[in-house]
Amino acid sequence: MAVINRLDASSPDFPARLTTLLAVEAEQDEAIDRAAADILADVRRRGDDALLDYTRKFDRVQAQDMGALEIPKADWHAALAALPTAQRNALETAAERVRDYHEHQRAETWTYTDPEGNMLGQQVTPLDRVGLYVPGGKAAYPSSVLMNAIPAKVAGVQELIMVTPTPDGVRNPIVLAAAAIANVDRIFAVGGAQAVAALAYGTASIPAVDKIVGPGNAYVAAAKRRVFGTVGIDMIAGPSEILVICDGTTPADWIAMDLFSQAEHDELAQSILLCPDQDYIDAVQASIERLLPTMPREAILRVSLSNRGALIKVRDLQQACDIANEIAPEHLEMSMEQPEVWTARIRHAGAIFMGRYSSEALGDYCAGPNHVLPTSRTARFSSPLGVYDFQKRSSLIQISHAGAQTLGRIARELAEGEGLPAHAASAAYRLDAV
What we know:
Blueprint: E1 5-8, H1 14-22, H2 30-46, H3 48-59, E2 70-71, H4 73-82, H5 85-103, E3 110-113, E4 119-126, E5 129-133, H6 142-155, E6 159-163, H7 173-181, E7 186-188, H8 192-201, E8 211-213, H9 218-227, E9 232-233, E10 241-246, H10 252-263, E11 270-275, H11 278-291, H12 298-308, E12 310-313, H13 317-327, E13 331-335, H14 339-343, E14 351-354, H15 360-365, E15 391-398, H16 401-417, H17 421-428
Parallel strand pairs: 1-12, 5-6, 5-8, 6-7, 8-9, 10-11, 10-13, 11-12, 13-14
Antiparallel strand pairs: 2-7, 3-4, 4-15
Helix pairs in contact: 2-3, 2-8, 2-9, 4-7, 5-6, 6-7, 8-9, 10-11, 16-17
């Protein structure tokens, strides 16, 4: 099997081959969905008792009460103080950059008054309480803590409750340190669908939240789907993706490693290069073949690249942009001279990295913009996580006496046309003639 697929956009079968390459098995495993539904119902019914039972069963933590599962702030700050200096500095610098970026996203209340004296506008308010799910066990994602918690706090969220599983009672110190830096309010050592249930419905110990954000496994994703409507959720993320458009001037090893940076996530991750230079594509493939055996996650990389990766020859950079808009990737690298010229032609992408020095990995950790991005072509209609996800808008309407005369007649006419006489009368009562 080839180490990575080779496609040519000029081939008659290219559209069909691209569709096949992009396809992901999207059906939710019925057994997982049923298990998640059962856990949600059980936690909703039994509350803390159910949480304790599932934590003993799945995480092998023999807690006798929920007090043992709330991690005190003193532990977070102790974890932060114990970090190696370089690691702490990196975490704090990343947090500062993420905070600075998201400060620019904060929406403000605004109003205006029309010629008849009607005041109209919107009032922006933060969510009261948000739940943040953070994976535990072998996975350690302090960057995910920063990317979810910081925009919530910038938005003005009053209480941010973090849940994270601690298998065998092992608490990840860098995750706790990130929570301290990001000003999380409370942390509970619970995970899985049961943690989602606690956040959605509330228990005696864990208060119900207004929105749940953060990544998790298939059970967490299934639970988030089911509680949506009771609470808000950020998104249901698919496999990680990177699409690179390159003009052939970036060192081939750089592009090969950029493709690896997403392929190493898991076997379903997708890494694609679009380039008009056949010789350069050959050079990137040679780099992939040479560097692959040196990578610690070689086995995962090989499956990802051979099943879902591709090096695609395009006619020119305009065609590359057209294909990119069709793919609507999570991460898009514009690795070329004058990237701003071509970036203006991109309509659908989660995050756009402009120029050869802008590697996707910098965006994952410390550039500033959020790394929680739409996947599986959802960038066609959705955006990165941001401050706006933790704020809501209420319309403001204050009608003057003069405005009631004009608008009342319009509303009465439309209400009568819709067959809603009480609406018509409500508007008409404010008319001077009536």
